[in-house]
Amino acid sequence: MKIGGDVVQIETKFQVYFSLLVGGVYGLTFYWFQLVNSEAISVVALIFQAICFSGFWFLFAFGFKHKRKQVMDHIASDSSIAFYGAAHQLIKTSVVSGVLYATENQLVFQPNNEDWIENSWTLDWENVENIQTYSSLGVVDLGVRIQTKGGMKFKFQVNQPRIWLQKLQTKIELKQVL
User: How far apart are CA 160 and CA 106, in angstroms?
Assistant: First the structure.
């Protein structure tokens, strides 16, 4: 069972249009700065910079997103998974995007970008001491906080944190009964 919504996929032609628009805005801004500073304006250089900026924007904003879909499809096809969903693990001030899923014996976090974190994070259900939601200023629930029996704490931002909390607590209770 998947918890949370799907990631919205923008069609490629609209990604290109948006990247060109951002590059055009960059070019116009750069042109304006040159105009204000009374510098010589080279139209060819402005067009070249706008096109390069559009290309970089396309790569960084849209080009590296396809891997997330592949990870989610791989996890969804595994029959041993009880539930899963997109998550962001908070490590001090850093955020690592990935997929959080529950199997029969473990809770697993698989990062999307394995260049930063090479291995999946796993936690046996027997090692979980406490699970609770955490919120922003006590108003909006952002995710779940998991505390182990060893005293370690892990925070995950997830969609629908109350459902995650309920499912995780059910999983832990089932393991304690067995």
Answer: 20
Q: What φ, ψ does residue 32 adopt, rounded to 5°?
A: -60, -45
As a whole number, the mean pLDDT across the chain is: 81
Q: Report the candidate in 145, 149, 151, 123 with the shortest Cα–Cα distance to residue 133.
A: 145
CA distance 17 to 79: 40
Query: What is d(CA 178, CA 174) in angstroms, rounded to the nearest whole number?
Result: 6
Q: Over the stretch 100-142, which tens digit does the pLDDT of each residue have?
A: 888 888 888 888 776 556 677 888 888 889 999 988 887 888 8
Cβ pair 119, 130 in contact under 8 A: no
H-helix or E-strand containing 45? helix 43-58
Residue 159: DSSP 8-state:
S
**Lookup: tokens for 91:** 């490590």
**What pTM did the predictor assign?**
0.60
